Amino acid sequence: MSKTKIVVSSNSGFCFGVKRALDIAKGALKKRKTIYSLGPIIHNPQVVRQFSEMGLVVAGDIEKLCKDCTLLIPSHGISPDVLKEKAFTCIDTTCPLVGRVQKIVRELREKDYFIIIVGNRKHPEVKGLKGIAGRNSRVLKNKKEAKTFNLSSKSRKVALISQTTASLTNFKEVLSEMTKKDFAEFIHFNTVCKNTIDRQKEAAALAKKVDAMIVIGGKNSANTSKLAKACKNINKNTCHIESFKDLRMNFLKGRKTIGIVTGASTPPYAIREVVKKIRRIDS
Length: 283
Ligand code: SF4
Fold this sequence. Notes:
The chain is an alpha/beta fold and 283 residues long. The chain has helices spanning 16-31, 45-54, 96-110, 124-133, 143-148, 168-179, 194-209, 222-234, 249-252, 268-282, and strands spanning 5-8, 35-37, 56-58, 70-73, 89-92, 114-118, 137-140, 157-162, 185-188, 212-216, 238-241, 257-262. The mean pLDDT is 92.
């Protein structure tokens, strides 16, 4: 009989947007031998490898691609300036929730707001939003950056939005700093996606109850890294792994309860493999 109790968060595995993107790509790859993806389709190395075997190639220099290539826009979207060349056939897998934020940014730009995006400036979604927002925009990572942010002109209307996979706590902290500033007008949109919020809440609740937490997902996945950080703040016995191969026996030793959470781009089979490994060591 197994000794360790394993609790898998109900908000685990692919989110709706990631699942949708992979389904679209799978369908398209049945009709085409090769499709070039503008960056990894999702932030999970195992899945990217699996799709590369099916013919989805991460595009390097877009300038070097021939005009009749088919391009895939990943789930987190792209900046409009990436596709200066109109001749490409595009398969757009941008998550509709990211699309909604892009639409908000487009409208804010038209209304001449200075747009502040809370997020990671290196993340493709944020680069895409910044590209849509244009010159009158800024990306702020956290409350420290928000504290020192100021605009030279006091007459500007300012709008705050968030990367969909940002930490809600971080967004609220930045929001609280921004409300202290003296702008002509200030509006905000909490655009952290519900799936991200639910995942973060459940992970935090689970981390309080168990002896140890395992967070599964790509090391390059923003939302997985944030989950791992949040869990570690609550439960120091937290490890972030990409697959069962990274799970060490020492980490499992003596644990009576283990919680498992995943990022939005982690495939369900990765959870099954981790559970299987714990059970094997346990028996
Ligand atoms: S985390 Fe949310 S916004 Fe991002 S792809 Fe998934 S459902 Fe879409």
